[in-house]
Amino acid sequence: MKITPVQKQTRAGQRTRFKAFVVVGDGDGHVGLGVKCAKEVATAIRGAIILAKLSVVPVRRGYWGNKIGKPHTVPCKVTGKCGSVTVRMVPAPRGSGIVAARVPKKVLQFAGIEDVFTSSRGSTKTLGNFVKATFDCLMKTYGFLTPDFWRETRFIKTLFQEYTDLLARPKGLTYGFLTPDFWRETRFIKTPFQEYTDLLARPKGLVIEAPAEKIEA
């Protein structure tokens, strides 16, 4: 988009560097913006291209009026801002073209927008803020959920709604009684004392000998 020199005041004097603004896009709903500052122009451009490719975002497109053919304009009115610059985009009918200044027109072409009306306010002479405001405007196209993006709503009853009849009963009535349908099957397990009751009930002095095994010759 543009290469501009920037300066920084140091003890040794003014240090000049070059700032590059690069926009990339496929003309089919994807655009990216990169800004890089370096001592040399080639280094700044190379770095800006890399950053622009890393910041590619999808751009949502829509229709003006009937949904005939491919999407050609922005889906709704969107506004982007950077610094003092404000850019506003309005959907336009097919065939209107891109009604915009030179800077945002290039960005919109890279994004694949064919028809749109734009208006800008602020210090648009500052190209960096003008480009960033346009890019911010395109990023917000997916921020507005139109009805075609709505999901089917499933209404689930809350606990208060589900048990309204139970809560509406008189306060003095208790619900501590379990009906048979709430009963669980009871399994009775003998304790060691119950299992060896006969053994423990024998006299203490009685010695029990095990039966001798018969040995067959």
Automatic annotation (TrEMBL):
GO cellular component, one term: cytosolic small ribosomal subunit
The keyword Transport is assigned to this record: no
Domain S5 DRBM: 1-59
A Pfam entry, by short name: Ribosomal_S5_C
SUPFAM superfamilies given in the database record: dsRNA-binding domain-like, Ribosomal protein S5 domain 2-like
Highest taxon in the source lineage: Eukaryota
GO terms, molecular function: mRNA binding; structural constituent of ribosome
InterPro entries found in the cross-reference section: Ribosomal_Su5_D2-typ_SF (IPR020568), Ribosomal_uS5 (IPR000851), Ribosomal_uS5_C (IPR005324), Ribosomal_uS5_euk/arc (IPR005711), Ribosomal_uS5_N (IPR013810), Ribosomal_uS5_N_CS (IPR018192), Ribsml_uS5_D2-typ_fold_subgr (IPR014721)
GO terms classed as biological process: translation
Protein keywords: Ribonucleoprotein, Ribosomal protein
Family stated for the protein in its record: Belongs to the universal ribosomal protein uS5 family.
NCBIfam families: uS5_euk_arch (TIGR01020)
PANTHER family referenced in this protein's UniProt entry, alphabetically: 40S RIBOSOMAL PROTEIN S2 (PTHR13718:SF4), RIBOSOMAL S SUBUNIT (PTHR13718)
Protein name listed in UniProt: Small ribosomal subunit protein uS5
Organism of origin: Oryza rufipogon (Brownbeard rice)
